[in-house]
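Thought: the user wants the 3D structure for the chain below. I'll pass the sequence to the structure tool as-is, report back what it returns, then summarize two notable features.
Action: structure_tool
Action Input:
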Amino acid sequence: MNEHLEALSEVTSRGADFKAFRKFMEVRVAHWDTLWEEYTKPRWARLRMNLYCGKQRAFANFFNQLSALKEDESQRLVVAYGAGRWKTQKGTAPAPTTRTYKECARRFVTIPIDEFRTSHSHHERGRTLQRVEMEKCQRSPEDAKKYGPLTEEQMERRAKLRGLLALVSTTNDGKKRMEFANRDFNAAINIRRCAVLETRPPE
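Observation:
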């Protein structure tokens, strides 16, 4: 199976190039019977079912922990859920935000909250957090020889640490002070604040 999958991975149906698309179809037709014969075996259906059941157990365990936060059974648990949508960045696994929202809404009272800038505004001081950046640097001579040198755009992108934010301030003696903030915790507190207030704060 590996050789069939490797052959399919070398072609793609994306793009507007007719020759590339025709090559993709030729490779697909050449390996179609073998792949179809393999993936119609019962073990693949069992694997898909096991994966589905595993996801359901993960949701059930997580939401059971949330239910345990209630002090008595007469209380209703209300969940403020961040309603933001974003594209998955290259090289990162997509987050199941829509699926999680549906599972949450099936169990609890769930309020979608506009989470715009909730992770970039400090939950206590109300100041804007800044992205932490490293010094731009080129690849080592060995890696540059093997993979090629980085472009200016690539060095700029690598210098920015994804998701790391800090509250930058100046001390009395004029020195810069950097206080790192937990992005997820900070956003969660701000989302809760937006849920309980009558109007959303301007920041």
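Final Answer: Structure generated. The first strand starts at residue 78 and ends at 82. The longest helix spans residues 42-67.
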